[in-house]
Amino acid sequence: MSAGSVAVAVIDDDVPFWDLYELGVVCTVFGIPHHDLADPWYDLRLCSARGTSAQAAPGAGGFALRTPYGLDALAGADTVIVPSVPEACVDGGRELPPELLTALRRAADGGARMVSLCAGAFALAAAGILDGRRATAHWLHTEELARRYPKVDVDDSVLYVDDGDVLTSAGVTAGLDLCLHLVRRDLGAHVANQLARRLVVPAHRPGGQAQYVDLSVPAADDEGLAPVLQWATGHLDRPLTVDDLARRAGMSPRTFFRRLQAATGTTPLQWLLTQRLARAQSLLESTGLSVEKISELSGLGTGANLRRHFTLHFGITPTDYRRAFPPAA
Q1: What is the predicted pLDDT for the residue at 224?
Q2: CB burial class (10 A; 0-12, 13-18, 19+) of residue 301?
């Protein structure tokens, strides 16, 4: 259970307004200490080619950024994040800086976890880090990413892809989803959930959720959908069915299925399973209850059923997960 160091590769000294969101997300999640949740918190480093020598460009449509570190500081970091690349680099009108690609390769060769948000995938792809791997980017850019880098298995249908030591995300809020996923991997579900609560965002959107849906999060006045989902998360120990939820929402099962899929990009049964596993994950971290009892409280039935789904979903057994994130004394 470790936070470690996070080095952020800032491509340009002048950051356009559009790219500020992804950079801001990274700085907010990893750069603001929450010592009451985890101590030590992450050590964040902002790195650019010119470092502290960057000067503002007259008439720039964004902000001039002076970073404390140069690109050489990417090497040795536990995690390296490329939050974005200039639009001209996405369109092919401008090459990415060779010194950036060299620094990224050096960091990857040194064992760093490599991460991109939105169009930052173009930098990892240009450095060869995504060759032979599944990756994603904003759906507006995935076609171009696949065309220019045919060795990359581009998936345009997901929020983010976790390929172990290389992770990529779609654009805008999907970048926040991936950053919280990293916190969840490093520090556990409880810390990630508490941080998400402070940021007033959903605690967990699975990476496999669709990028483009009518509503990523149901609105509070969604004619019965949001209230029934909130009710369901408080009654996960019950054997809930789609018919039960549809009846409580005052809809037919078919309408409820369609509305939930449009709002979350997933089916009602998959949504329920995700919530049950999240509850089990939280209980493993926060209590000393047996796996059998946790399975019962999360609505997964038997301990064997919990072990099967937990291992398939998280790639680790409940026992090993508890060993990695033991309950606080």
Answers
A1: 65
A2: middle
Do residues 124 and 244 both lie within one domain? no
Query: What letter does residue 327 receive in the DSSP assignment?
Result: P
Number of domains in the chain: 3
* Tens-place pLDDT, residues 79-138: 999 999 988 889 888 899 999 999 999 999 999 999 999 999 999 999 999 999 999 999
Q: Do residues 275 and 186 both lie within one domain?
A: no
> Which residue segment(s) compose the domain that 303 sits in?
270-324
Helix (H, G, I), strand (E, B) or coil at 70: strand
- How far is residue 90's CA from residue 148's CA, in Å, rounded to a whole number? 10
List residues bridging with 168 in a β-sheet: 116, 161
| 136-152 pLDDT per residue, tens | 999 999 999 999 999 99
Note the helical H segments in the chain. Answer: 17-31, 87-91, 98-109, 121-126, 142-148, 173-187, 189-199, 225-233, 242-249, 253-264, 268-286, 291-297, 303-314, 318-324
Q: Of 66-75, 201-210, 211-220, which has the strongest mean pLDDT? A: 66-75
| Domain presence at residue 213 | no
Distance in angstroms (rounded) separating the CA atoms of residues 261 and 83: 29
For 155, the token pair is: 């998936």
The DSSP call for residue 314 is: H
pLDDT at 205 over 60: yes
The alpha carbon of 270 is separated from its chain's Cα centroid by a whole number of angstroms, namely: 19
Token pair recorded at residue 218: 């149901």
Output the CA–CA distances (angstroms, integers) from residue 329 to 195, 286, 287, 325, 326, in the order listed. 21, 9, 10, 12, 9
User: By the 8 A CB rule, do 288 and 318 touch?
Assistant: no
- Of 301, 304, 327, 329, give the one whose Cα is nearest residue 317: 304
Fill in the DSSP letter of residue 56: P
Question: Which residue, among 112, 124, 261, 118, has the nearest Cα to 176 in the 3D structure?
Answer: 118
